[in-house]
Structures are given as C-alpha cells and as structure tokens.
C-alpha cells in the first residue's frame, strides 16, 4: 500500500512538473489585458467589412491560390488571409476567433470559409513557431 502511494505521488509530481514547463499563456486569448483584447476586437469588427481586413480586399481577382496542395478561390483566399492576420494581430485562441467571426462579418460563415480561416491561422502559427 505504501509503495503504491509513493509511486502515485511521484507520478503526480512528474506530471505536474511536465505540465508546468510549457510556455506561459496570456490570459486574454493572447493579449496582456482585457483592454488590449477589446482594442483588437474593435479593429477587427471595424475593418472586416469594407476595410483592410475585408476578405475581398485581402485577395485579388483572377489569381490562383493554393496552400498545402488545396486550391482556393478569391473568397476562400481572403478568409485564409484573414485567419493569418488574426494570428499576426496577436490572437492565440482559435475558438475565440470562431466566436468573433459572425460578429465581424455580420453573418454565420459557410464551413468552407471557416476552414480557410482555420488553415490561415494554422499556417501563421506554424510560420511563427519556425522563427
């Protein structure tokens, strides 16, 4: 009985140490404070329709786009770039971004566009981890 208790305690200690070794995460979906998150949200909400972050402004007509062997049309590419931009702005929670999408675009997005956003976000995250 004592041996089992010691063994469980050692495993818990090692697991706690391993879990605690990760990089510290910022409490506000990647931002230092709720004010900085709110400012980023305001920018995204303002610029996602007709502004700098409008998917139609982030891609060009008559272009061919492909990422990881998948072809994207102009709209899909725009949403892909939007996902990349969200990571570049400092967002570190894809689930928060998914909740922000309907507010930013004033509609629920098609699965195709949500997947393009996810792919763009993942690509930006991958590029950042290689640097």
Describe the protein in words.
The protein contains five helices and two strands; from the N terminus they run ααββααα. With 131 residues, the chain is mainly α. The protein has one domain (29-130). It is globular and about 40 Å long.
Report the structural category: mainly alpha
Count of discrete alpha- or pi-helical segments spanning 4 or more residues: 5
List segments where confidence is low: pLDDT < 50 over at least 5 consecutive residues: 1-22
Secondary structure: helix percent: 55-70%
Number of domains: 1
Q: What does the radius of gyration come to?
A: 20 Å
Strand order of the largest sheet: 1-2
Strand content: under 5%
User: What is the total tally of β strands?
Assistant: 2
- Give average pLDDT, whole number: 86
In short:
With 131 residues, the chain is mainly α. 62% of the residues lie in helices and 5% in strands.
Topology:
Elements lengths: L1 H19 L13 H14 L17 E3 L2 E3 L1 H16 L4 H12 L5 H20 L1
Antiparallel strand pairs: 1-2
List keywords for this structure.
disordered N terminus, mainly alpha, two-stranded antiparallel sheet, 2 strands, single chain, 131 residues, 62% helix, 5 helices
């Amino acid at each position: 009985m004592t041996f089992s208790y010691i063994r469980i305690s050692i495993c818990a200690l090692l697991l706690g140490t391993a879990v605690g070794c990760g990089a510290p995460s910022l409490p506000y979906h990647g931002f230092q404070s709720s004010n900085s998150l709110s400012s980023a949200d305001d920018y995204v909400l303002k610029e996602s329709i007709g502004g700098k972050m409008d998917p139609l402004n982030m891609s060009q007509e008559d272009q061919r786009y492909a990422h990881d062997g998948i072809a994207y049309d102009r709209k899909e590419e725009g949403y892909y770039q939007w996902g990349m931009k969200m990571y570049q702005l400092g967002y570190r929670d894809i689930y928060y971004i998914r909740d922000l999408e309907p507010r930013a675009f004033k509609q629920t997005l098609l699965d195709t566009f949500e997947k393009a956003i996810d792919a763009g976000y993942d690509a930006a995250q991958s590029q950042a981890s290689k640097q």
